[in-house]
Design a protein that fits this description.
By secondary structure, the protein is mostly beta strands. Helices cover 8% and strands 31% of the residues. It has one helix spanning 16-20; strands at residues 2-4, 7-9, 30-34, 37-39, 54-59.
C-alpha cells in the first residue's frame, strides 16, 4: 500500500506517471513528494512506487 495525501491506496509497483494518469491531477500544475523528497517531473516515468511509500501531491492554483 502507498499512502497518497494521507489515504492508503493499492498502487505499489506503478510509476508516478501511471498513478497520475488515473487521477484528475494536471501534471503541469502539481508537485510530488515521495518519502520527503521532491520527485522531478522528468523522473515521473522512472519512479516506481514501493509498498510503504508516502506521496504528497500539491496542486498549484493561479489567481489574482
Amino acid at each position: 500500500m502507498v499512502k497518497v495525501n494521507g489515504t492508503e491506496l493499492d498502487i505499489a509497483g506503478k510509476t508516478v506517471s501511471e498513478y497520475l494518469a488515473t487521477t484528475n491531477y494536471d501534471p503541469k500544475r502539481i508537485a510530488v513528494e515521495r518519502n520527503g523528497d521532491i520527485v522531478f517531473k522528468s523522473k515521473y516515468d522512472a519512479t516506481v512506487l514501493d509498498d510503504g511509500d508516502s506521496l504528497e501531491i500539491v496542486s498549484f492554483v493561479g489567481g489574482g
